[in-house]
Amino acid sequence: MTALDTAARASLVRERLGGAQRVVVLTGAGISAESGVPTFRGEGGLWREYRAVDLATPEAFGRNPQLVWEFYNWRREVLAPLAPNPGHEALVKMEQSVPHFTLITQNIDGLHEKAGSRNIIELHGNIWHVRCLGCGEVSEDRSVLAPMPRCAGCGQLLRPHVVWFGEALDPSVLRRAYEAVQKAGVMMVIGTSGTVEPAASMGILAKRKGAFLVEINLEPTPYTSFYDASIFGKSGEILPLISESL
Ligand code: BV8
Ligand code: ZN
Asked: Is the pTM of this model over 0.90?
């Protein structure tokens, strides 16, 4: 896509946003890539010889909790020093310029919150939160965790408070997300390969309810033909073009 093309599409999107009352944004791992966070399915999506999707399951944790904790502790270590990038920051600006703004993210890295976004729906949980398998206590813990961290209250094993493949999303989180998606005047889907459900179908639902649907991604995805506007490139470069004069 030429720079001219990108600029022209960015101003089309900016126009649509300027007139919108309700804007919903759905982000995936791609928006954090420029912060140095490995994406799920890109070349950085591997950890040693394991695929992330094979470790982010209750079965993997049941079989070998130590290995799954090693994977999540490695990701926490990688994530801890990383900062939001201009893409995250552009969404903070967008939230301040739009009457009703909802940010739905598939990411568990906490970088949207670190950037200053407010109305965030974390569909898949948050890597900085842990949950006790015994008493169910959920807490935020940013410390370097033990290889098999235990609950301070009841001594049982903790797990990352994230949604693994094959696990249901929190119904109240899903309800909030669908409420926003169905009322959106504009929905932007940013940095996601559109492979993970139920997030992947939210854009189509918004469009069916009348939203202007925008895709911002490094490359086309299976849903690209459904979008009203697609801008291919780095979200950290494209989003500031859209939010700069909102
Ligand atoms: C559910 C938390 C039902 C953990 C994640 C068959 C068998 C079993 C299950 C299923 C199946 N078919 C469908 C399913 C359902 C399954 C699913 O969708 N599987 C897929 C893989 C086929 N979904 C589930 O299991 C969900 N639960 O359906 O429950 C249920 C109901 C009742 C009772 C029981 C069950 C739960 C899914 C949640 C999984 N957890 N994360 C963790 O992170 O450790 S999902 C994980 O993938 C991450 O959250 C990640 O965000 C997400 C999606 O991936 P993407 O974000 O899209 O990342 P990806 O790398 O794929 O793509 C990045 C994109 O960015 C690329 O397109 C790239 O081009 C682009 N990009 C890169 N750099 C940039 C960029 N774009 C712009 N700028 C850049 N600089
Ligand atoms: Zn406990």
From this structure: yes
